[in-house]
């Protein structure tokens, strides 16, 4: 059997590049080397290169996403994308690979760009049965009028977050009126659009969803118990700051309801590959509140998707094979 040549792309143009490199190291360990020839490709601003097993670096020709290695041109059959944030998660690379007709493991350009925008994603998902959204406002510039307008229209406490950011960078929880101005400043440092949401009190979960052969699979959810006010960057990436329980504590009816909602979200957004959706089950009512969706979720050994795949009794090797094979269907 001729092995398919897979470019495992990692890095990116944001602070999340470090997480991407860690995710890629785990993916590389678990890819089926009997089926695939794996090439690690690093993508950084002005510096795209393939790195071989010996640490030798070869520049990528952006005209066709090819590499000249030992006098021969290396082209790829498919892309395993593990770049969080831009340009891997926001649709830029998806559009580039579409133009070159190279398949990839993640969502298409349109879905990727829409899902990076929390406000637009919520607008598309409104109308799904049993799915609730926290009341929110989308702000497009940091104007003095924003503070009184938010206070007038939304009820404290709030989450203030960059609309297109990842890993909870620039996000704040606002409990008092006087904290709002500073929180907006912090969020606008990260993005030109900011989302202010009313806080939902409840238990927080995160759930993986993927599709193979036309069949959507919903992984067991992870319950997140953070010692922080919310699941921020430190809670996500510093061991011991949050407790993660997989499968999360839900009764059978809740599990079934969440599964149905998760599948509808995946299909309505026309997702591809593996995505991760964060949600709250509201205290007292048990209502399902959508938080956000990640279309290139982390794949480190302790990442939520990795935990959920193992909880389902599946190996990461089989999971990654499913994601890769889906590219050519």
From TrEMBL:
Q: Which reaction does it catalyse?
A: 2 D-alanine + ATP = D-alanyl-D-alanine + ADP + phosphate + H(+)
Q: Provide the GO MF annotations for this entry.
A: D-alanine-D-alanine ligase activity
Q: List, separated by semicolons, the cofactors it needs.
A: Mn(2+); Mg(2+)
- Which range is the signal sequence, renumbered to this chain? none
- What's a Pfam family in this record? Dala_Dala_lig_C
Q: In which pathway does it act?
A: Cell wall biogenesis; peptidoglycan biosynthesis
Q: Where is the ATP-grasp domain?
A: 118-325
Keyword annotations for this protein, in alphabetical order, are:
ATP-binding, Cell shape, Cell wall biogenesis/degradation, Cytoplasm, Ligase, Nucleotide-binding, Peptidoglycan synthesis
Compartments it resides in: Cytoplasm
EC number from the UniProt entry: 6.3.2.4
The entry assigns this protein to a family as follows: Belongs to the D-alanine--D-alanine ligase family.
User: What is this protein's function per UniProt?
Assistant: Cell wall formation.
Record-given protein name: D-alanine--D-alanine ligase
Q: Which organism is it from?
A: Cyclobacterium plantarum
């Amino acid at each position: 059997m001729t092995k398919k040549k897979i470019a495992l792309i990692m890095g990116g143009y944001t602070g999340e590049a470090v997480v991407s490199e860690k995710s890629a190291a785990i993916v590389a360990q678990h890819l089926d080397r009997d089926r695939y020839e794996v090439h690690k490709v690093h993508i950084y601003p002005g510096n795209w290169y393939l790195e071989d097993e010996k640490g030798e670096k070869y520049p990528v020709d952006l005209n066709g996403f090819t590499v000249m290695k030992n006098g021969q041109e290396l082209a790829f059959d498919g892309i395993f994308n593990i770049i969080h944030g831009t340009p891997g998660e926001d649709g830029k690379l998806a559009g580039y690979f579409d133009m070159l007709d190279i398949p990839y493991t993640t969502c298409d350009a349109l879905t990727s760009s829409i899902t990076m925008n929390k406000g637009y994603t919520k607008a598309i998902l409104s109308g799904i049965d049993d799915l609730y959204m926290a009341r929110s406002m989308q702000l497009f510039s940091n104007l003095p009028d924003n503070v009184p307008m938010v206070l007038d229209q939304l009820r404290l406490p709030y989450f203030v977050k960059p609309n297109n950011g990842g890993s909870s960078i620039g996000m704040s929880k606002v409990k008092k009126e006087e904290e709002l101005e500073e929180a907006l400043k912090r969020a606008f440092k990260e993005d030109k659009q900011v989302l202010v949401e009313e806080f939902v009190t409840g238990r927080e979960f995160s759930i993986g969803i993927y599709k193979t052969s036309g069949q959507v699979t919903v992984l067991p959810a992870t319950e997140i118990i953070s010692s922080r006010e919310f699941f921020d960057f430190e809670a996500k990436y510093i061991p011991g700051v949050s407790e993660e329980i997989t499968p999360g504590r839900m009764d059978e009816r809740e599990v079934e309801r969440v599964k149905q909602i998760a599948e509808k979200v995946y299909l309505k957004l026309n997702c591809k590959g593996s995505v991760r959706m964060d949600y709250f089950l509201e205290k007292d009512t048990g209502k399902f509140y959508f938080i956000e969706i990640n279309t290139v979720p982390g794949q480190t050994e302790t990442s939520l998707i990795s935990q959920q795949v193992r909880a389902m009794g599946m190996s990461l090797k089989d999971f990654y094979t499913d994601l890769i094979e889906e590219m050519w269907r």
